[in-house]
Automatic annotation (TrEMBL):
Keywords: Methyltransferase, Phosphoprotein, S-adenosyl-L-methionine, Transferase. GO terms for molecular function: methyltransferase activity. InterPro entries: Lys/N-term_MeTrsfase_sf, Methyltranfer_dom, SAM-dependent_MTases_sf. This is EEF1A lysine methyltransferase 4. The keyword Methyltransferase applies.
Amino acid sequence: MDPPAAPKCDVAPATASAYLDPQYWDQRFAQEEHYEWFKEYSHFRHLILEHIQPTSAVLEVGCGNSQLCEELYRDGIAELTCIDLSSVAVDKMKKRLLSKGYKGIKVLEADMLDLPFEDECFDVVIEKGTMDVLFVDSGDPWNPEPVTVSRVMAMLEGIHRVLKPHGIFISITFGQPHFRRRFFNAPTFTWSVEWRTFGDGFHYFFYILKKGERSSDNSEDTEKIEVLPSISLFHEELDNEDYLFRTNLDEM
Ligand SMILES: C[S@@+](CC[C@H](N)C(=O)[O-])C[C@H]1O[C@@H](n2cnc3c(N)ncnc32)[C@H](O)[C@@H]1O
């Protein structure tokens, strides 16, 4: 198989492991004004609006320089908080939102592995392409390294903790259900797990985890897994850097 094409974006790193380096993100955000991972809002707006009410308190984890929070705000969701580990991203996001008059959106520098919020304070938590960062050095995706497992579990435990009793976690990702299931379905969590796909082919996954609604029957999830094709079939079609997050099953 041919290697993937070179990234079209100057700020893309040489190897995906750089995505775990906070300095990489600061340097990148110093140069880059906007980059949207995993498609723009219009591609999954219909899925998001099924789960968010105008009164929902929403946390976006790892906002980077995405326009997701602005799009949500324009769609009438006023109680928004964004966090990112990168101080550069946070400063630039604050300035951008202020210049557009979106004063109600809070933006904080914070680590998603140690969320600085009280228990049960958000109706919805959203992440887009942020959890994928934790998997870039995971090794075998069927049996990730212990360090990957502990980071992903820290992220998910924090999100579960800050969600209200019937809150919803939305994860927009490249991670296929068979690689996410062991984390999302860990016994410590009370959420149910559903997923949809979006994109022009079959590229991106939209997970909906509803706290307090876990059932012991995961048959729907299992049925959908059976019909998933290898993600590598689609890598030619992926946007810019998105292919760096893909898991090429043909190479395993
Ligand atoms: C792949 S980008 C996704 C950005 C944005 N969500 C989007 O859709 O375009 C990953 C983002 O996660 C942030 N990030 C990485 N590790 C983080 C952590 N531990 N806590 C919070 N944000 C983190 C990075 O700074 C970067 O903005």
